[in-house]
Amino acid sequence: MDLLVSEEQCAILDSFTAFLDREFSLSRFHLQAAGGDVSDRERWRAMAALSWFGLGLPEKCFGVGGDLTDEMLLFRELGRHLVTPSTLAVVLAARIAAAGNDSALVEALVGGATQAALGVPAGTACIDRSVTGDFLVMDRCDNDVILVWTPDKAVLLERRSAERCQPVTCIDDSIVLERVVFNNATPMHSAAPDVDAIHLRATVLLSAMLTGASEATRDMAVAYAGVREQFGRPIGTFQAIKHRCADMAVRTEAALAQTRYAAVLARDQGLMSLPHVSAARILAYTAGLENAAANIQVHGAMGYTAECHAHRFLKRARLLGSVGGNVRQHQQLLLEAASEKPDEMK
Amino acid sequence: MNLDFSVEDESFREKVREWLIANAPTEARPHGAAMVAFDRAWQRTQFEAGWAGIAWPKEYGGRGLSLLQQLIWLEEYARAGAPPVGCFYVAVNHGGPTLIALGSQEQKAFYLPKILSGETIWCQGFSEPGAGSDLANLRCKAEIDGDDLVVNGQKIWTTYGQHAKYQELLVRTDSSAPRHKGISWVICDMDSPGIDIRPIACMDGTEHFCEVFYDNVRIPLSNVVGDLNDGWRVTMTTLGFERGTGLLYDQLEMSRIVDHLIELAKTQPGPDFLRPAIEDDEIAAELATLRAEVSALKAMSYTTISRAQRGPLGAEGTIVALYTAELMQKVYRTAVDLLGTEGLVLPEAPDSFQFRYLNSFIHTIGGGTSEIRRNIIGERVLGLPR
Prior knowledge:
The complex is a heterodimer of chains A (346) and B (386).
Chain A: H1 7-23, H2 27-33, H3 44-49, H4 68-80, H5 86-99, H6 103-111, E1 116-121, E2 126-127, E3 131-138, E4 145-149, E5 154-158, E6 164-168, E7 177-185, E8 189-191, H7 193-196, H8 198-227, E9 229-230, E10 233-234, H9 239-269, H10 274-298, H11 300-304, H12 310-321, H13 327-338
Parallel strand pairs in A: 1-4
Antiparallel strand pairs in A: 1-3, 2-3, 3-7, 4-5, 5-8, 6-7, 9-10
Chain B: H1 7-23, H2 33-48, H3 67-79, H4 89-102, H5 105-116, E1 122-125, E2 141-145, E3 148-159, E4 166-172, E5 183-189, E6 195-200, E7 209-220, E8 224-225, H6 231-239, H7 248-267, H8 281-308, H9 317-339, H10 353-359, H11 370-381
Helix pairs in contact in B: 1-3, 3-7, 4-5, 4-6, 7-8, 7-9, 8-9, 9-10, 9-11
């Protein structure tokens, strides 16, 4: 029993972190806003070249044969650096395409030639052999496939099968958002829940992104509280601030421990891990959102500015929290799972 | 990363499970007069079967279990519904290990065997009216007179002081030294002349702890553990034995209780008296969140044990301790909420949710207040300035 990373995983992780610190430092948002830097999407090829999109796929599917815990660790770092959620879309899309034996699409997705974007139902939608409904698509590119995933279904749709696409302004200005309408569109591929447990994997990876983001905001708040001085001392010496930071650490520790636990169980026990995966999702969203809010608070008025990065973590947490089922749906899954266990109270 | 146990560990688990199911008491742990006999009998049963002192080295009569085997024992212990450790907690988890680490040969030979067998209960004489969170502010004084220390002063919040034979007593033996440096850790025989023990009535209806007054109490110098005036270091040792397994019982118990509450909510009338409680959205959300949080507790324990397997633990254990304490309070509050007006009635059975709810208020106070814990997390885990 060991829930921490092995030395081998640690070395691989260090290489991921080195790349992300260099290519995806938060200062890129300033440069992007001023038109002086490439968007996350334009770093796509670089990420593909690192084999990130096929990390969890077997070698015969153009992957490197890692497992769900390796992917979870990667997505934790992607979340920490606010990398586009489209990375989650492409990893899941490649997996669905592989399950559908579409090796050309798998190769294109893993290699970076075809990109992918997350689609979220904006209200009730029919997602079955044909797809009808209104969706919000996040951070799209022109040659994207669109991945729609709910707790029950996961489908891949071609962009051109949409009836209508209308860009809208997102609360997160680093993300392009679109209203997309599908009307009896036929998916390229659908995931059968029992075949490849897409919902389980997707939820673990999403939880990892939210948890990584919650660690970034915890660290940002602590760093600030250690240097900002008022009344002749660092504000981190005041108990109210110190305790707010401690609460951030507690949220993160709970989310991270549960996400690790869920990743191992999902890898080893498949569908039986569902309650633990839902638990991770709930705790990770709470950590991601609450820590982002607390981080703004610790930064005072600075935290309220557009220039300070604190607001980005809040907005991204809300975006990620809307994907793959909302909190109420995950709570429902947790309660249903509980009722299957025999009552062991004496 | 894995959740696997070796073949040996799995067969150990089966052995443990079998023994616990056959031998653990099935009735609830009583309060009041019958409590000590209950705890003593269970300690004795474990001792006779070789299960007392699972974390103690074999040379001192313990089982010397590996960390993972301790985890397995505690999981099966909670699963079997075995009772909480009770009166023997301080002896088995603090006093004994402190002597093993820092006691003299004579002290080990005399005191250790009587602990595992259930013969001697120990209590902790640390806190005073003026020294709670600020323990170093203690003023209970000990002066050397020949071969003895003569103790005068007062302790408070001494759990099971009225039942204990021995006390880990912190006294000030050098008033001129800086606060942390003039303290000694001594073994006090609670039957000594001059000791006055007064139980304190608690909000949960029990007399869980005591005031203890010392009027010229003579304690042999040979009862000092470690060196004279070195008691602060000994105390840090006493409080530092946590290896990540200490809270497992409570955590697994919480898991069982939350599952039970979810079942209860399906039949218990909800706030509108028409539908079952589980159909009230707020109650459903609260129960689901509790279920997520108890899952995280187990995951955090496993993470702590994974860290302990790599080296000595730092202050991160404080995070888990804080989370456990606050979660216990939330769970029992939800339980009493679910009971509606029955939550106002205190049942006779000692183990009711009503009792546990009232009892739960101690968890964010005793053993480290949640405020101090947050300070420790902020300073020692996050590195914020003091």
